[in-house]
Amino acid sequence: MSDKVLGDRIPEFGKPKAGGQANMGGGLGGVSIQSTRELMAVIAVAVLIIGGAEWLLRVFEVPPFIMPTPSSIMAVFFSDELPTIATHAGHTLVELFAGYAIGASIGLLLAALITQFPFAEKIITPYILLLVTTPMLALVPLLILNFGFGYTPRIIAVALASGPMVMINAATGFRRVDLGKIALARSYGASTLQIFTKIRIPMAMPMVLVGLMMGAIFGLITAVGAEMAGGGFGLGSRLTTYSSVIRMPEFFACILILALMGILIYLLFFWLGKRLAGWES
Fold first, then answer.
1. What is the structure's pLDDT at 10?
2. Is there a contact between 88 and 269 (Cβ–Cβ < 8 Å)?
3. Of 62, 83, 98, which closes a domain?
């Protein structure tokens, strides 16, 4: 077979396709934008939806206390209320980061433990299933009763919500490793720790990242719910306050901030997936 034929059949990786296309996605979620035309289409649809909502609300004269216009919602970000909302958003982020760090760390440790020791799985799994099937918001009043109205009950609730998500997905990833690779490593004298760090963790990274992303999103939802139940501070507290005094532009501004937090969480793990688990695609 000639070199020319081989050259025609060998794919060239890492080079953009003809027509100026550039891969802007992949990995977690499989969402990708392949060209500038697709990007412009996404922006056009967003502008159409927002502009159409603005026009419809004005034409039908919908009262602001029922549904404010997008322009009035955006005006909140240029008003004197923004510093107050930003302060409460900071409280929500503190609860999320602290609770998530605790829950994700414990979840990863438990996943490693039950993967290496099947007997430990029989002891731990029933309690993890109990946590997964129990709405954490139902425990918030009990946590507030025992720990007060500060950060502590909210951080505990976030940790309890995020930890099981991380543990279940990480353990699934650790178990899906090809046993042939493990057997080959043992034949070369690799220890259990070496097999876990050099084979199980890298091969399980896609599932681990999915678990971390789900844990972060569940943690954000739980943090907001705990703030709504406990009051005092946080975006969840602002939601209940603004809805009670019918300040709907500020209410939807808080909703928009929470949505942006969720999108940033997805984009963070999307980027990590491309860096740490890009080999899967």
1. 45
2. no
3. 62
What is the distance between the alpha carbons of residues 272 and 1, in angstroms, rounded to a whole number? 41
Spatial separation of the C-alpha atoms in residues 207 and 167, rounded to whole Å: 10
Which domain, by its residues, includes 17? 8-62
DSSP codes of every residue in 229-276: HH-SSSHHHHHHHHHHTT-HHHHHHHHHHHHHHHHHHHHHHHHHHHHH
- Spatial separation of the C-alpha atoms in residues 227 and 157, rounded to whole Å: 11
**pLDDT tens-digit profile of 103-124?**
999 999 999 999 888 888 889 9
Q: For residues 29 and 146, state if they share a domain.
A: no
Q: Are residues 114 and 13 in the same domain?
A: no
As a whole number of angstroms, the distance between CA 252 and CA 66 comes to: 11
Q: Per the structure, how many domains does the chain have?
A: 2
- Best CA proximity match to 252, nearest among 238, 272, 271, 266: 238
Q: Do the domain assignments include residue 3?
A: no
